[in-house]
Design brief:
Elements: E1 10-13, H1 17-29, E2 33-36, H2 42-59, H3 65-73, E3 75-78, E4 89-92, H4 98-111, E5 117-120, H5 127-131, E6 140-145, E7 154-159, H6 165-177, E8 181-186, H7 193-196, H8 198-209, H9 215-224, H10 232-239, H11 241-254, H12 265-272, E9 307-311, H13 318-327, E10 331-334, E11 344-346, E12 352-355, E13 369-372, E14 383-388, H14 394-406, E15 410-413, H15 422-438, H16 444-454, H17 461-468, H18 470-483, H19 493-504
Parallel strand pairs: 1-2, 1-4, 2-3, 4-5, 5-6, 7-8, 9-10, 12-13, 14-15
Antiparallel strand pairs: 6-7, 9-11, 11-12, 13-14
């Protein structure tokens, strides 16, 4: 282990929310900590705020009074940068402007000792560009904590082009000793989490713009069917629409306006109107104290059919639904010859229910259809989304609703939109993750760990790819691309390669 010795001072420059959080983490790990801020008295205010938070931890029984007192004895403030000369590690958490960070690190380089490790907590700027201002850029590394830093375990350890391997290893080991879960990644726009997470927001916003469903319904489907902790509309209201949109725009611009990262016009209008989310009282939702909570579209109770046909096909997500039918005592009969694609259900009037594959139900040339959205686990999910085609029999639509209600699910009926909600989102997350792994952004384990710990995804995107199959993700994206040509849904070469290999091996 090459972690920073606990006797070494950790200096934190920038005493806003992130700076305070990082200082608290280092303090409770056992380091002496120096807080510095360019604004007079702000560091002192931050030290008082940290002391208040530690007092609350004592009140909750999470910290002993003696440990609190020992930690506070190690906390001090610095009026100027020369006071940081003896630090073993300096973590920068100032404004997200390249010129400001470069100027700070140039000054720090002239102040601290040769063995001092320099770290930036940037979430959107290039570590390589920040280090480009230094005479010795090899000792600069990205240490991207997630807010709130004392609570969230993930730290992205980012190596710029010039970062020494020894610097990255020292930063990684130090974060691990601090009780965090570090992951290594290359210096790429958005690093791991903010790069791969873009479709989670972008697809939801696009579905809203296309009037596939309202925000409350999209959020509910992604939570209750997809297994995500929060939906994208409620999450961005919590983060701040301005903050989330700025990250999206920064990644898009860094990738030279790659259509896969295109920002949402609807979100831009929110920002322009000052509807920034919880902090302004209104965003996608109304957060006024007396506001009624937005409710997702939920189908009224319908009668389930006494019997359902099952048209067998290759194994896939629908297999779990067939198991649920048996558990619920729904009679099934074999319907037709085996299908070339996945298993489908056949309703009394002949309408087929199939799991979304990126095509609309109306465009299904095998006959009237209803698309079922993807679920993380059809056994445990509490809500499913259905999208009837324009030619689906209305009695069969009610039968489909009743069928899933009999299986214990709340049903949301959404517009007949390619890929629907969860399916479209997961296919894109898989593609972004496969692309990131292929390009050396991070290894497979670190990608899945980052997405589960950094944004609370129920499953790593590469784990999802293994479960659903690269062929499913590729086929879904190909169908989406046929409807929306232009590059947004074009599968990356690595996913295409995996899909071709699966096809040759006879996998779905």
């Amino acid at each position: 282990m090459t972690a920073l010795d606990l006797t070494s001072t950790v200096a934190v420059v920038g005493s806003g929310t992130m700076g305070q959080g990082i200082a608290q983490v280092a303090l409770l790990a056992g380091h002496p900590v120096l807080l510095h801020d360019a604004v007079p008295d702000r560091a002192e205010d931050a030290a008082e705020a940290i002391a208040a938070r530690l007092a609350r931890l004592v009140d909750k029984g999470r910290l002993t009074a003696s440990d609190r007192d020992a930690a506070l004895a190690r906390l001090d403030t610095a009026r100027d940068l020369p006071a940081l000369a003896g630090a073993g590690l300096v973590v920068e958490a100032v404004v997200e402007r390249l010129d400001a960070k470069q100027a700070l690190f140039r000054e720090l380089e002239e102040t601290v000792g040769d063995t001092c490790l320099l770290a930036t907590n940037t979430s959107s700027l290039s570590v390589t560009a920040i280090g480009g201002a230094l005479r010795r850029p090899g000792r600069l590394v990205g240490l991207h904590f997630f807010n709130p830093a004392p609570l969230l375990p993930l730290v992205e350890v980012v190596s710029g082009v010039a970062t020494d391997e020894s610097s990255a290893t020292r930063a990684y080991d130090t974060a691990a000793v601090w009780g965090k879960t570090p992951v290594r990644c290359a210096d790429t726009p958005g690093f791991i989490v903010n790069r791969i997470a873009r479709p989670f927001y972008a697809e939801a916003f696009r579905l809203h713009e296309e009037r596939a469903a309202d925000p409350a319904t999209i959020d509910a489907v992604l939570r209750e069917s997809g297994g995500f902790r929060m939906g994208p509309f409620e999450l961005t209201d919590l983060i701040g629409q301005d903050v989330n949109e700025a990250v999206t725009r920064s990644v898009w611009e860094s990738f030279f306006h790659d259509p896969r990262f295109t920002p949402s016009p609807a979100q831009r209008r929110l920002v322009e109107s000052g509807r920034l989310g919880r902090k302004s009282g209104r965003g996608w939702y109304d957060h006024a104290p007396d506001a009624e909570p937005a409710r997702p579209a939920t189908a009224e109770p319908c009668e389930a059919p006494a019997e359902v046909g099952v048209q067998p096909g290759p194994s896939g997500p629908m297999a779990a639904v067939v198991e649920l039918l048996a558990e619920a005592g729904v009679r099934t009969t074999r319907a037709g010859v085996p299908a070339a694609s996945e298993t489908s259900l056949v309703l009394p009037k002949g309408t087929r229910i199939t799991v979304t594959d990126g095509r609309t139900a109306t465009g299904d040339f095998e006959g009237p259809a209803i698309r079922l959205d993807l679920a993380l686990d059809y056994h445990t999910c509490t809500r499913v989304a259905l999208a009837p085609g324009a030619d689906a029999d209305l009695l069969d639509v009610r039968a489909a609703i009743g069928l899933f209600q009999k299986l214990g699910k709340t049903v949301s009926v959404v517009a007949d939109t390619p890929g629907m909600i969860v399916g479209r989102t997961v296919a894109m997350l898989i593609d972004f993750a496969v692309d990131a792994e292929a390009r050396g952004v991070a290894d497979r384990a670190d990608i899945d760990t980052a997405m589960k710990l950094g944004v609370n995804y129920p499953r790593g995107p590469l784990e999802w790819c293994d479960e659903l199959g690269a062929r499913w993700a590729w086929r879904t994206l190909q169908n989406l691309h046929a409807t929306y040509p232009g590059g947004r849904y074009g599968a990356c070469p690595a996913l295409t390669h995996r899909s071709d290999l699966a096809y040759k091996q006879g996998l779905s």
